[in-house]
Design a protein that fits this description.
- The protein is an alpha/beta fold and 402 residues long.
- The protein is built from 15 helices and 12 strands.
- The strands form 2 sheets. Strands 1-7-6-5-4-2-3 form a 7-stranded mixed beta sheet, with helices on both faces. It has a 5-stranded mixed beta sheet with strand order 8-9-12-11-10.
- Strand 5, helix 8 and strand 6 form a beta-alpha-beta unit.
- Helix 1 packs antiparallel against helix 3, helix 4 packs parallel to helix 5 and helix 13 packs across helix 15.
- The longest helix has 20 residues.
- The protein starts with 15 loop residues before the first helix and ends with a helix.
- The relative contact order is 0.12.
- The chain binds pyridoxal-5'-phosphate.
- Pyridoxal-5'-phosphate (PLP) binds next to helix 4.
């Protein structure tokens, strides 16, 4: 390729926190300090020959916003720098990131091994949608490395995990799964939605691909739907970009700008929200109306040690718990809150509360839910920046009257 799109001029060795606020593109001719929002569907070319070279990928330049836009590129470069990957491609949503990965690396006759505890729509995408096109998926227990190994077939091309999972916060051993994926010559993708690169960088443990729902912590304030895939330049440029160009699950420049600015505060938000979540989880564990708390930061979590090693010593900001009394009790606790927002989203500065069995995982069969361990008494709280004492009081309202 001839001419390349220039990078920001930062000294070699610039650290992650600085990259989070500065990586992207050089400033425009106007010298703006906050990144520019390029709301344009196409880019004017200087002449027909240059346009031809750019459309043929002989010269890197902005052409058409379905696949190239400066604001989107700034977001992609910044997220790649934070994840420690060579490249990143932004998508319209977290789900379309997984769709793009599937379209880019799988074909009819291929086999996928996927954790059975992934987000409900991810399960549907692999089992139902990819299934229509002749891709078979085996779902295995997230934490059982041998189950992953046993599920392998000669045509296994992709391993897919989420860590921690939604809503059970099960943690997979990224390093161990990366080893078996390599042995089998399969790609290993990790959905890093719950931790974000502020806490966990899956490629440091050997994963090949990182998936993001930018809708969650990357935005951080519940404003836009966004997604991304981070990986090698070869994966992004050769396998994913051609699909993006043909299929167009593109991130809008406006949404890219919002998420790009979200990345600037990601590390301090994750730190503060994780600290609040730990306090809330410890308090919940002491409440008599609660059967069990799922939070990787608690010593009682079955993969506590692993989570601490993989997640920069933090548990993340999602706490799930099971109340005694099944669905009626869970609905009562949710409906008694006055501060928590009753919404299925997570990653917001406003604490959110949801009943996974009837919302995010409502489309699964009861059998699938049982296999995934999502019971009717389970509540998920995604802790934001609300005062933790207010959150305790908010949950106590319903718990005290059970
Ligand atoms: C772990 C995980 N991955 C992917 C997604 C999908 O992301 P989006 O809603 O941006 O499509 C979600 C959404 O809740 C999620 O929790």
């Amino acid at each position: 390729m001839g001419k390349k799109i220039p990078r920001v001029d930062l000294p070699a060795g610039t650290r992650r926190d600085t990259l989070a606020v500065r990586e992207g593109l050089p400033r425009s001719a106007w010298g703006e300090n906050s990144e520019a929002l390029f709301l344009t569907s196409s880019f004017v070319q200087p002449d027909a020959a240059t346009a031809a070279a750019r459309f043929a990928n002989e010269e890197e330049a902005f052409v058409y916003s379905r696949f190239t836009n400066p604001t989107v590129t700034m977001f992609e470069r910044r997220l790649a720098a934070m994840e420690g990957t060579e490249a990143c491609i932004a998508t319209a949503s977290g789900m379309s990131a997984i769709l793009l990965l599937g379209l880019g690396v799988l074909k009819a006759g291929d086999h996928v091994v996927c954790s059975q505890s992934v987000f409900g729509s991810t399960m549907m995408l692999f089992s139902r949608e990819f299934g229509k096109f002749g891709v078979e998926t085996s779902f295995v227990a997230q934490t059982d490395v041998n189950a992953w190994r046993k599920a392998f077939k000669p045509n296994t091309r992709l391993l897919f995990a989420e860590s921690p999972t939604n809503p059970l916060t099960e943690v997979c051993d990224i390093f161990a799964l990366a080893v078996i994926a390599k042995e089998a010559g399969a790609l290993f993708a990790v959905d890093n939605c719950f931790c974000s690169p502020a806490l966990q960088r899956p490629v440091e443990f050997g994963a090949d691909v990182v998936i993001h729902s930018g809708t969650k912590y990357l935005d951080g304030q519940g404003r836009v739907i966004a997604g991304a895939i981070c990986g090698t330049e070869q994966l992004v440029n050769e396998k994913l970009m051609p699909v993006m160009r043909s299929a167009g699950m593109s991130l809008s420049p406006f949404n890219a700008w919002v998420v790009l600015k979200g990345l600037e505060t990601l590390a301090i938000r994750m730190e503060a929200q994780s600290a609040r979540a730990l306090q809330l989880a410890a308090w919940l564990e002491a409440q008599p109306q609660i059967e069990r708390v799922f939070y990787p930061g608690l010593r009682s979590h079955p993969q506590h040690e692993l989570a601490m090693a993989q997640q920069s010593g933090k548990g993340g900001a999602v706490v799930s718990f099971v109340v005694k009394g099944e669905r009626t009790a869970a609905f009562h606790v949710i409906d008694s809150t006055q501060i928590c927002s009753i919404t299925a989203n997570l990653g917001d500065t406003k604490t959110t509360i949801t009943h996974p069995a009837s919302t995010s995982h409502g489309r699964l069969t009861e059998e699938q839910r049982q296999t995934a361990g999502i019971t009717q008494g389970m509540i998920r709280v995604a802790v934001g920046l609300d005062d933790v004492e207010d959150l305790k009081a908010d949950l106590q309202r319903g718990l005290a009257t059970l």
